[in-house]
Amino acid sequence: MTEIFSWLPILLSGVKTTVLLTVGAALIACPMALIFGLARLSSHPSLYLPSACYIEIFRGTSALVQLFWFYYVLPHFGWKLDAFSAGVLVLGLNIGAYGAEVVRGAVQAVPREQYEAAQALSFSRQQTMTRIILPQAFVAMLPPAGNLMIELLKSTALVSMITLSELTFKGQILRASTLKSTEIFTITLLIYFLLSLCISGAVRKLERYVSYAKG
Amino acid sequence: MHFRSSSEIGTLCFLRERLTVNENIFDWAFALSLLPKLLDALIITVTATVMGMALAMLLGLLWAVLKKSKQPVMYWMATTIVEFFRSTPLLVQVYFLFYVLPDAGLRLTPFQTGVLALGIHYSAYLAEVYRAGIESVPKAQWEAAEALNFSKGHTFKAIILPQALPPIIPALGNYLIAMFKDTPMLSAITVLELLQTAKIIGAETFRYTEPLTLVGILFLILSLISARMIRFMEKRYGY
Question: First CA to last CA across chain B, in angstroms?
Fold first, then answer.
Protein backbone atom coordinates (compact mmCIF):
# COMPACT_ATOMS: atom_id res chain seq x y z
CA MET A 1 0.00 0.00 0.00
CA THR A 2 2.82 2.40 0.91
CA GLU A 3 4.42 1.59 -2.44
CA ILE A 4 1.50 3.23 -4.19
CA PHE A 5 2.37 6.54 -2.59
CA SER A 6 5.93 6.28 -3.85
CA TRP A 7 4.63 5.73 -7.40
CA LEU A 8 2.20 8.62 -7.33
CA PRO A 9 4.72 11.47 -7.89
CA ILE A 10 6.08 9.67 -10.97
CA LEU A 11 2.60 9.06 -12.37
CA LEU A 12 1.50 12.62 -11.59
CA SER A 13 4.44 14.06 -13.53
CA GLY A 14 3.09 11.98 -16.44
CA VAL A 15 -0.39 13.42 -15.85
CA LYS A 16 1.07 16.88 -16.35
CA THR A 17 2.34 15.96 -19.82
CA THR A 18 -0.96 14.23 -20.63
CA VAL A 19 -2.93 17.35 -19.67
CA LEU A 20 -0.57 19.61 -21.64
CA LEU A 21 -0.96 17.35 -24.68
CA THR A 22 -4.74 17.40 -24.35
CA VAL A 23 -4.93 21.18 -23.99
CA GLY A 24 -2.42 21.82 -26.79
CA ALA A 25 -4.20 19.48 -29.19
CA ALA A 26 -7.58 20.99 -28.28
CA LEU A 27 -6.23 24.46 -29.08
CA ILE A 28 -5.35 23.23 -32.57
CA ALA A 29 -8.49 21.11 -32.99
CA CYS A 30 -11.06 23.84 -32.24
CA PRO A 31 -10.06 26.36 -34.96
CA MET A 32 -9.42 23.52 -37.43
CA ALA A 33 -12.89 22.11 -36.77
CA LEU A 34 -14.56 25.48 -37.16
CA ILE A 35 -12.67 26.53 -40.32
CA PHE A 36 -12.89 23.21 -42.13
CA GLY A 37 -16.40 22.42 -40.92
CA LEU A 38 -17.68 25.70 -42.39
CA ALA A 39 -15.54 25.37 -45.52
CA ARG A 40 -17.02 21.90 -46.05
CA LEU A 41 -20.45 23.53 -46.25
CA SER A 42 -19.42 26.05 -48.87
CA SER A 43 -20.65 25.58 -52.42
CA HIS A 44 -17.33 26.80 -53.78
CA PRO A 45 -15.04 23.92 -54.88
CA SER A 46 -11.85 25.73 -53.86
CA LEU A 47 -13.21 25.76 -50.31
CA TYR A 48 -15.01 22.46 -49.94
CA LEU A 49 -12.56 20.24 -51.85
CA PRO A 50 -9.53 20.92 -49.62
CA SER A 51 -11.64 20.61 -46.50
CA ALA A 52 -13.21 17.35 -47.72
CA CYS A 53 -9.69 16.01 -48.38
CA TYR A 54 -8.46 17.05 -44.94
CA ILE A 55 -11.48 15.54 -43.19
CA GLU A 56 -11.41 12.26 -45.14
CA ILE A 57 -7.65 11.76 -44.79
CA PHE A 58 -7.52 12.39 -41.06
CA ARG A 59 -10.71 10.49 -40.29
CA GLY A 60 -9.95 7.68 -42.70
CA THR A 61 -6.53 6.70 -41.41
CA SER A 62 -5.64 5.53 -37.95
CA ALA A 63 -4.44 8.12 -35.41
CA LEU A 64 -1.50 5.93 -34.44
CA VAL A 65 -0.43 5.55 -38.09
CA GLN A 66 -0.63 9.33 -38.48
CA LEU A 67 1.51 9.75 -35.40
CA PHE A 68 4.17 7.38 -36.69
CA TRP A 69 4.06 9.04 -40.08
CA PHE A 70 4.56 12.52 -38.66
CA TYR A 71 7.32 11.32 -36.34
CA TYR A 72 9.29 8.99 -38.60
CA VAL A 73 8.50 10.06 -42.18
CA LEU A 74 8.25 13.86 -42.04
CA PRO A 75 11.94 14.23 -41.06
CA HIS A 76 12.78 12.71 -44.49
CA PHE A 77 11.01 15.67 -46.04
CA GLY A 78 13.05 18.03 -43.91
CA TRP A 79 10.52 18.69 -41.17
CA LYS A 80 11.81 17.45 -37.84
CA LEU A 81 9.36 17.31 -34.96
CA ASP A 82 10.01 16.27 -31.38
CA ALA A 83 7.65 13.75 -29.80
CA PHE A 84 5.60 16.36 -27.94
CA SER A 85 4.98 18.64 -30.93
CA ALA A 86 4.26 15.65 -33.18
CA GLY A 87 1.73 14.47 -30.61
CA VAL A 88 0.05 17.85 -30.23
CA LEU A 89 -0.04 18.41 -33.99
CA VAL A 90 -1.33 14.97 -34.99
CA LEU A 91 -3.94 14.72 -32.24
CA GLY A 92 -5.04 18.29 -32.93
CA LEU A 93 -5.42 17.64 -36.65
CA ASN A 94 -7.06 14.26 -36.05
CA ILE A 95 -9.66 15.47 -33.55
CA GLY A 96 -10.07 18.65 -35.64
CA ALA A 97 -11.21 16.50 -38.56
CA TYR A 98 -13.82 14.76 -36.41
CA GLY A 99 -14.78 18.14 -34.99
CA ALA A 100 -15.26 19.55 -38.49
CA GLU A 101 -17.98 16.95 -39.04
CA VAL A 102 -19.57 17.97 -35.73
CA VAL A 103 -19.57 21.63 -36.80
CA ARG A 104 -20.99 20.70 -40.20
CA GLY A 105 -23.76 18.60 -38.66
CA ALA A 106 -24.68 21.29 -36.14
CA VAL A 107 -24.83 24.06 -38.74
CA GLN A 108 -26.91 21.89 -41.06
CA ALA A 109 -29.30 21.12 -38.22
CA VAL A 110 -30.29 24.79 -37.91
CA PRO A 111 -33.71 25.02 -39.60
CA ARG A 112 -33.87 26.61 -43.07
CA GLU A 113 -36.45 29.12 -41.85
CA GLN A 114 -33.74 30.80 -39.79
CA TYR A 115 -31.85 31.69 -42.97
CA GLU A 116 -35.04 32.89 -44.61
CA ALA A 117 -36.03 34.98 -41.61
CA ALA A 118 -32.56 36.54 -41.48
CA GLN A 119 -32.80 37.32 -45.17
CA ALA A 120 -36.25 38.83 -44.72
CA LEU A 121 -34.76 41.10 -42.04
CA SER A 122 -32.06 42.00 -44.59
CA PHE A 123 -29.14 40.60 -42.60
CA SER A 124 -25.98 40.26 -44.65
CA ARG A 125 -24.71 36.70 -45.19
CA GLN A 126 -21.93 37.28 -42.70
CA GLN A 127 -24.31 38.68 -40.10
CA THR A 128 -26.66 35.75 -40.63
CA MET A 129 -23.81 33.36 -39.95
CA THR A 130 -22.29 35.06 -36.90
CA ARG A 131 -25.48 36.36 -35.27
CA ILE A 132 -28.12 33.79 -36.15
CA ILE A 133 -26.74 30.45 -37.29
CA LEU A 134 -23.53 29.91 -35.32
CA PRO A 135 -24.97 30.75 -31.87
CA GLN A 136 -27.72 28.20 -32.42
CA ALA A 137 -25.33 25.64 -33.87
CA PHE A 138 -22.96 26.12 -30.94
CA VAL A 139 -25.55 24.77 -28.49
CA ALA A 140 -25.96 21.65 -30.62
CA MET A 141 -22.19 21.25 -30.98
CA LEU A 142 -21.44 21.10 -27.26
CA PRO A 143 -22.41 17.52 -26.35
CA PRO A 144 -20.57 15.86 -29.27
CA ALA A 145 -17.61 18.23 -28.77
CA GLY A 146 -17.44 17.10 -25.14
CA ASN A 147 -17.30 13.47 -26.28
CA LEU A 148 -14.50 14.37 -28.69
CA MET A 149 -12.54 15.96 -25.85
CA ILE A 150 -12.72 12.66 -23.98
CA GLU A 151 -11.63 10.84 -27.15
CA LEU A 152 -8.74 13.30 -27.35
CA LEU A 153 -7.71 12.62 -23.76
CA LYS A 154 -7.80 8.89 -24.48
CA SER A 155 -5.74 9.21 -27.64
CA THR A 156 -2.95 11.05 -25.80
CA ALA A 157 -2.01 7.57 -24.54
CA LEU A 158 -0.89 6.80 -28.12
CA VAL A 159 1.87 9.39 -27.92
CA SER A 160 3.62 7.11 -25.42
CA MET A 161 4.39 4.89 -28.42
CA ILE A 162 6.61 7.57 -29.94
CA THR A 163 8.46 7.73 -26.62
CA LEU A 164 6.87 10.79 -25.03
CA SER A 165 6.83 10.20 -21.29
CA GLU A 166 3.21 10.93 -20.48
CA LEU A 167 1.00 8.98 -18.08
CA THR A 168 0.90 5.67 -19.99
CA PHE A 169 4.64 5.79 -20.60
CA LYS A 170 5.34 6.42 -16.91
CA GLY A 171 3.07 3.50 -16.10
CA GLN A 172 5.09 1.29 -18.46
CA ILE A 173 8.37 2.39 -16.87
CA LEU A 174 7.05 1.70 -13.35
CA ARG A 175 5.76 -1.69 -14.47
CA ALA A 176 9.16 -2.60 -15.91
CA SER A 177 10.95 -1.67 -12.69
CA THR A 178 8.46 -3.05 -10.14
CA LEU A 179 6.60 -5.79 -12.10
CA LYS A 180 3.42 -4.85 -10.21
CA SER A 181 1.33 -4.71 -13.41
CA THR A 182 -2.11 -5.02 -11.81
CA GLU A 183 -1.70 -2.21 -9.32
CA ILE A 184 0.09 0.19 -11.66
CA PHE A 185 -2.25 -0.20 -14.61
CA THR A 186 -5.31 -0.04 -12.34
CA ILE A 187 -4.09 3.28 -10.93
CA THR A 188 -3.27 4.53 -14.44
CA LEU A 189 -6.75 3.62 -15.68
CA LEU A 190 -8.33 5.27 -12.62
CA ILE A 191 -6.37 8.49 -13.26
CA TYR A 192 -7.59 8.56 -16.86
CA PHE A 193 -11.13 7.90 -15.64
CA LEU A 194 -10.91 10.83 -13.22
CA LEU A 195 -9.58 13.12 -15.94
CA SER A 196 -12.48 12.11 -18.22
CA LEU A 197 -14.94 12.77 -15.41
CA CYS A 198 -13.43 16.27 -15.06
CA ILE A 199 -13.91 16.92 -18.79
CA SER A 200 -17.48 15.62 -18.91
CA GLY A 201 -18.33 17.57 -15.76
CA ALA A 202 -16.93 20.78 -17.23
CA VAL A 203 -18.79 20.26 -20.50
CA ARG A 204 -22.05 19.59 -18.65
CA LYS A 205 -21.58 22.82 -16.71
CA LEU A 206 -20.91 24.72 -19.93
CA GLU A 207 -24.00 23.16 -21.53
CA ARG A 208 -26.16 24.27 -18.63
CA TYR A 209 -24.67 27.75 -18.79
CA VAL A 210 -25.20 28.06 -22.53
CA SER A 211 -28.78 26.78 -22.51
CA TYR A 212 -29.46 29.19 -19.63
CA ALA A 213 -27.92 32.10 -21.56
CA LYS A 214 -29.96 31.11 -24.59
CA GLY A 215 -33.09 31.26 -22.42
CA MET B 1 -8.60 6.35 -62.11
CA HIS B 2 -9.14 8.28 -65.30
CA PHE B 3 -7.53 11.53 -66.29
CA ARG B 4 -9.18 14.36 -68.09
CA SER B 5 -6.31 15.37 -70.31
CA SER B 6 -2.88 14.31 -71.44
CA SER B 7 -1.43 17.35 -69.69
CA GLU B 8 -2.60 15.93 -66.36
CA ILE B 9 -0.83 12.66 -67.10
CA GLY B 10 2.22 14.72 -68.00
CA THR B 11 2.10 16.54 -64.67
CA LEU B 12 1.74 13.27 -62.77
CA CYS B 13 4.69 11.72 -64.63
CA PHE B 14 6.73 14.82 -63.87
CA LEU B 15 5.82 14.69 -60.18
CA ARG B 16 6.63 11.00 -60.04
CA GLU B 17 10.03 11.58 -61.59
CA ARG B 18 10.72 14.45 -59.24
CA LEU B 19 9.87 12.27 -56.29
CA THR B 20 11.97 9.32 -57.46
CA VAL B 21 14.98 11.28 -58.67
CA ASN B 22 15.06 13.74 -55.81
CA GLU B 23 17.21 11.80 -53.29
CA ASN B 24 14.94 8.81 -53.66
CA ILE B 25 12.39 10.27 -51.27
CA PHE B 26 9.78 7.75 -52.28
CA ASP B 27 11.05 4.56 -53.94
CA TRP B 28 8.15 3.17 -55.97
CA ALA B 29 9.77 -0.19 -56.76
CA PHE B 30 10.54 -0.72 -53.08
CA ALA B 31 7.00 0.27 -52.11
CA LEU B 32 5.58 -2.21 -54.61
CA SER B 33 7.80 -4.99 -53.28
CA LEU B 34 6.36 -4.43 -49.79
CA LEU B 35 2.75 -4.85 -50.84
CA PRO B 36 2.47 -8.68 -50.46
CA LYS B 37 3.81 -8.52 -46.89
CA LEU B 38 1.49 -5.65 -45.99
CA LEU B 39 -1.52 -7.39 -47.51
CA ASP B 40 -0.79 -10.44 -45.33
CA ALA B 41 -0.74 -8.12 -42.33
CA LEU B 42 -3.97 -6.53 -43.52
CA ILE B 43 -5.66 -9.93 -43.24
CA ILE B 44 -4.61 -10.12 -39.59
CA THR B 45 -5.88 -6.59 -39.01
CA VAL B 46 -9.25 -7.39 -40.57
CA THR B 47 -9.54 -10.71 -38.69
CA ALA B 48 -8.84 -8.95 -35.39
CA THR B 49 -11.47 -6.32 -36.25
CA VAL B 50 -14.16 -8.86 -37.16
CA MET B 51 -13.53 -11.04 -34.11
CA GLY B 52 -13.33 -7.99 -31.83
CA MET B 53 -16.62 -6.73 -33.23
CA ALA B 54 -18.35 -10.09 -32.68
CA LEU B 55 -17.22 -10.03 -29.04
CA ALA B 56 -18.21 -6.38 -28.63
CA MET B 57 -21.70 -7.05 -30.01
CA LEU B 58 -22.27 -9.89 -27.53
CA LEU B 59 -20.86 -8.04 -24.50
CA GLY B 60 -22.58 -4.81 -25.53
CA LEU B 61 -25.93 -6.58 -25.58
CA LEU B 62 -25.20 -7.95 -22.12
CA TRP B 63 -24.47 -4.45 -20.74
CA ALA B 64 -27.57 -3.04 -22.46
CA VAL B 65 -29.81 -5.73 -20.95
CA LEU B 66 -28.23 -5.28 -17.51
CA LYS B 67 -28.78 -1.53 -17.75
CA LYS B 68 -32.49 -2.21 -18.34
CA SER B 69 -32.57 -4.33 -15.21
CA LYS B 70 -34.83 -3.21 -12.37
CA GLN B 71 -32.34 -4.36 -9.74
CA PRO B 72 -30.30 -1.29 -8.70
CA VAL B 73 -27.13 -3.34 -8.15
CA MET B 74 -27.18 -4.72 -11.69
CA TYR B 75 -28.01 -1.35 -13.18
CA TRP B 76 -25.33 0.42 -11.17
CA MET B 77 -22.73 -2.19 -12.03
CA ALA B 78 -23.42 -2.12 -15.77
CA THR B 79 -23.46 1.68 -15.86
CA THR B 80 -20.13 1.94 -14.03
CA ILE B 81 -18.50 -0.70 -16.22
CA VAL B 82 -19.68 0.99 -19.42
CA GLU B 83 -18.58 4.45 -18.24
CA PHE B 84 -15.20 3.15 -17.14
CA PHE B 85 -14.44 1.25 -20.36
CA ARG B 86 -15.55 4.19 -22.47
CA SER B 87 -13.52 6.84 -20.74
CA THR B 88 -10.15 5.13 -20.37
CA PRO B 89 -7.67 4.66 -23.24
CA LEU B 90 -7.81 1.44 -25.21
CA LEU B 91 -4.00 1.31 -25.22
CA VAL B 92 -3.86 1.13 -21.42
CA GLN B 93 -6.61 -1.50 -21.41
CA VAL B 94 -4.54 -3.49 -23.90
CA TYR B 95 -1.49 -3.26 -21.64
CA PHE B 96 -3.59 -4.16 -18.63
CA LEU B 97 -4.88 -7.36 -20.22
CA PHE B 98 -1.49 -8.19 -21.71
CA TYR B 99 0.39 -7.97 -18.40
CA VAL B 100 -2.29 -8.84 -15.86
CA LEU B 101 -3.99 -11.87 -17.44
CA PRO B 102 -0.82 -14.03 -17.34
CA ASP B 103 -0.38 -13.08 -13.67
CA ALA B 104 -3.92 -14.29 -13.08
CA GLY B 105 -3.02 -17.58 -14.74
CA LEU B 106 -4.75 -16.98 -18.08
CA ARG B 107 -2.28 -17.44 -20.92
CA LEU B 108 -3.48 -15.90 -24.19
CA THR B 109 -1.56 -15.13 -27.37
CA PRO B 110 -1.02 -11.42 -28.08
CA PHE B 111 -3.59 -11.68 -30.86
CA GLN B 112 -6.23 -13.14 -28.53
CA THR B 113 -5.44 -10.50 -25.91
CA GLY B 114 -5.82 -7.79 -28.54
CA VAL B 115 -9.18 -9.12 -29.73
CA LEU B 116 -10.36 -9.33 -26.12
CA ALA B 117 -9.30 -5.71 -25.46
CA LEU B 118 -10.97 -4.42 -28.63
CA GLY B 119 -14.14 -6.36 -27.82
CA ILE B 120 -14.33 -5.11 -24.24
CA HIS B 121 -13.57 -1.49 -25.13
CA TYR B 122 -16.10 -1.27 -27.93
CA SER B 123 -18.77 -3.22 -26.03
CA ALA B 124 -19.16 -0.10 -23.90
CA TYR B 125 -19.94 1.99 -26.98
CA LEU B 126 -22.25 -0.64 -28.42
CA ALA B 127 -24.21 -0.83 -25.16
CA GLU B 128 -25.36 2.74 -25.81
CA VAL B 129 -26.18 1.89 -29.42
CA TYR B 130 -28.32 -1.07 -28.36
CA ARG B 131 -30.05 1.06 -25.73
CA ALA B 132 -31.01 3.61 -28.37
CA GLY B 133 -32.31 0.80 -30.59
CA ILE B 134 -34.32 -0.84 -27.81
CA GLU B 135 -35.80 2.49 -26.75
CA SER B 136 -36.82 3.23 -30.33
CA VAL B 137 -39.29 0.31 -30.15
CA PRO B 138 -42.65 1.68 -28.96
CA LYS B 139 -43.70 0.72 -25.43
CA ALA B 140 -46.97 -0.60 -26.82
CA GLN B 141 -45.06 -3.51 -28.33
CA TRP B 142 -44.14 -4.70 -24.82
CA GLU B 143 -47.76 -4.29 -23.71
CA ALA B 144 -49.10 -6.13 -26.73
CA ALA B 145 -46.67 -9.01 -26.13
CA GLU B 146 -47.73 -9.11 -22.47
CA ALA B 147 -51.37 -9.19 -23.50
CA LEU B 148 -50.54 -12.18 -25.71
CA ASN B 149 -48.98 -13.89 -22.69
CA PHE B 150 -45.38 -13.81 -23.97
CA SER B 151 -42.73 -14.22 -21.30
CA LYS B 152 -40.29 -11.31 -20.80
CA GLY B 153 -37.33 -13.11 -22.36
CA HIS B 154 -39.45 -14.32 -25.24
CA THR B 155 -40.80 -10.81 -25.87
CA PHE B 156 -37.28 -9.45 -25.94
CA LYS B 157 -36.01 -12.11 -28.31
CA ALA B 158 -38.97 -12.43 -30.67
CA ILE B 159 -40.55 -8.95 -30.63
CA ILE B 160 -38.19 -6.25 -29.44
CA LEU B 161 -34.77 -7.24 -30.85
CA PRO B 162 -35.95 -7.87 -34.42
CA GLN B 163 -37.38 -4.34 -34.44
CA ALA B 164 -34.51 -2.73 -32.54
CA LEU B 165 -31.67 -4.13 -34.67
CA PRO B 166 -32.23 -2.83 -38.23
CA PRO B 167 -32.14 0.89 -37.25
CA ILE B 168 -28.82 0.48 -35.43
CA ILE B 169 -27.00 -1.29 -38.27
CA PRO B 170 -25.41 1.95 -39.57
CA ALA B 171 -24.22 2.87 -36.07
CA LEU B 172 -22.73 -0.61 -35.68
CA GLY B 173 -20.96 -0.10 -39.01
CA ASN B 174 -19.46 3.18 -37.84
CA TYR B 175 -18.05 1.51 -34.75
CA LEU B 176 -16.71 -1.31 -36.92
CA ILE B 177 -14.69 1.27 -38.89
CA ALA B 178 -13.57 2.97 -35.68
CA MET B 179 -12.39 -0.37 -34.32
CA PHE B 180 -10.58 -1.11 -37.57
CA LYS B 181 -8.69 2.15 -37.17
CA ASP B 182 -7.81 1.27 -33.56
CA THR B 183 -6.21 -2.09 -34.41
CA PRO B 184 -2.72 -0.48 -34.85
CA MET B 185 -2.68 -0.20 -31.05
CA LEU B 186 -2.23 -3.96 -30.97
CA SER B 187 1.26 -3.36 -32.36
CA ALA B 188 2.13 -2.32 -28.79
CA ILE B 189 1.77 -5.95 -27.71
CA THR B 190 3.61 -7.32 -30.77
CA VAL B 191 0.58 -8.45 -32.80
CA LEU B 192 1.80 -8.58 -36.42
CA GLU B 193 -0.87 -6.30 -37.81
CA LEU B 194 -0.30 -3.56 -40.42
CA LEU B 195 1.56 -1.00 -38.32
CA GLN B 196 3.77 -3.55 -36.58
CA THR B 197 4.69 -5.08 -39.95
CA ALA B 198 5.52 -1.63 -41.31
CA LYS B 199 7.67 -0.92 -38.26
CA ILE B 200 9.55 -4.19 -38.70
CA ILE B 201 10.14 -3.47 -42.39
CA GLY B 202 11.36 -0.01 -41.38
CA ALA B 203 13.76 -1.41 -38.80
CA GLU B 204 15.13 -3.97 -41.27
CA THR B 205 15.58 -1.66 -44.25
CA PHE B 206 16.02 1.73 -42.51
CA ARG B 207 13.25 3.07 -44.72
CA TYR B 208 10.11 4.13 -42.91
CA THR B 209 8.63 6.37 -45.60
CA GLU B 210 7.30 3.70 -47.95
CA PRO B 211 5.88 1.18 -45.46
CA LEU B 212 4.24 3.81 -43.23
CA THR B 213 2.79 5.71 -46.19
CA LEU B 214 1.42 2.50 -47.67
CA VAL B 215 -0.18 1.55 -44.37
CA GLY B 216 -1.84 4.96 -44.25
CA ILE B 217 -3.11 4.56 -47.80
CA LEU B 218 -4.45 1.05 -47.11
CA PHE B 219 -6.34 2.33 -44.08
CA LEU B 220 -7.71 5.25 -46.07
CA ILE B 221 -8.92 3.06 -48.95
CA LEU B 222 -10.62 0.53 -46.69
CA SER B 223 -12.29 3.13 -44.48
CA LEU B 224 -13.57 5.08 -47.46
CA ILE B 225 -15.02 1.94 -49.04
CA SER B 226 -16.68 0.85 -45.81
CA ALA B 227 -18.01 4.34 -45.15
CA ARG B 228 -19.66 4.22 -48.59
CA MET B 229 -21.22 0.88 -47.77
CA ILE B 230 -22.55 2.22 -44.49
CA ARG B 231 -24.09 5.21 -46.22
CA PHE B 232 -25.84 2.76 -48.54
CA MET B 233 -27.12 0.76 -45.57
CA GLU B 234 -28.23 3.94 -43.83
CA LYS B 235 -30.53 4.58 -46.78
CA ARG B 236 -31.84 1.04 -46.59
CA TYR B 237 -32.32 0.53 -42.87
CA GLY B 238 -32.00 4.01 -41.35
CA TYR B 239 -34.62 5.80 -39.36
Answer: 35
Going B145 to B235 to A42 to A92, the CA torsion angle's sign is positive
Residues of B in contact with A87 (CB under 8 A): none
A68 touches chain B (CB under 8 A): yes
Contact, A29 vs A95, CB < 8 A?
Answer: yes
Nearest-CB residue to B208 (from A64, A73, A156): A73
Distance CA A2, CA A194 (A): 21
Any idea what the CATH number is for the domain that residue B149 is in? 1.10.3720.10
**CB–CB of A132/A112 below 8 Å?**
no
Taking the C-alpha atoms of residue A73 and residue A80, their distance in angstroms, rounded to an integer, is: 9
**Structural domain of residue A172, as residue ranges?**
2-214
Q: Terminal CA-to-CA distance of chain A, rounded, Å?
A: 51
Say if CB B183 and CB B215 are below 8 A apart: no
* B19 domain-assigned: no
CATH number at residue A24: 1.10.3720.10
Q: Which of residues 178-217 of B touch A (CB under 8 A)?
A: 181-185, 187-188, 194-195, 198-199, 202, 208-209, 212-213, 215-216
Structurally, how many domains does chain A consist of? 1
What's the CA gap between A100 and A37, in Å, rounded? 4
One digit per residue, pLDDT tens: chain B, 239 residues?
A: 454 555 555 555 555 555 544 456 788 899 999 999 999 999 999 999 999 999 999 999 999 999 988 899 999 999 999 999 999 999 999 999 999 999 889 999 999 999 999 999 999 999 999 999 988 999 999 999 999 999 988 998 899 988 988 889 889 999 999 999 999 999 999 999 999 999 999 999 989 999 999 999 999 999 999 999 988 888 887 55
Cα of B131 vs its chain's centroid, Å: 20
**Contact yes or no for B209/A76 (Cβ under 8 A):** yes
- As a whole number of angstroms, the distance between CA A98 and CA B1 comes to 28
Query: Using CB atoms, which residue from B95, B181, B212 is nearest to A68?
Result: B212
Spell out the residues 6+ positions from residue B4 whose beta carbon is closer than 8 angstroms to its own. Answer: none
* Burial (CB count within 10 angstroms: exposed 0-12, middle 13-18, buried 19+), residue A46: exposed
- By the 10 Å C-beta count (0-12 exposed, 13-18 middle, 19+ buried), B132 is classed as middle
- Nearest C-alpha neighbor of B194 from the set B17, B56, B40, B13: B40
Query: Which residue range(s) make up the domain with B120?
Result: 27-237
**Does B155 reside within a domain?**
yes
Task: Report the C-alpha gap between B184 and B191 in whole angstroms.
Answer: 9
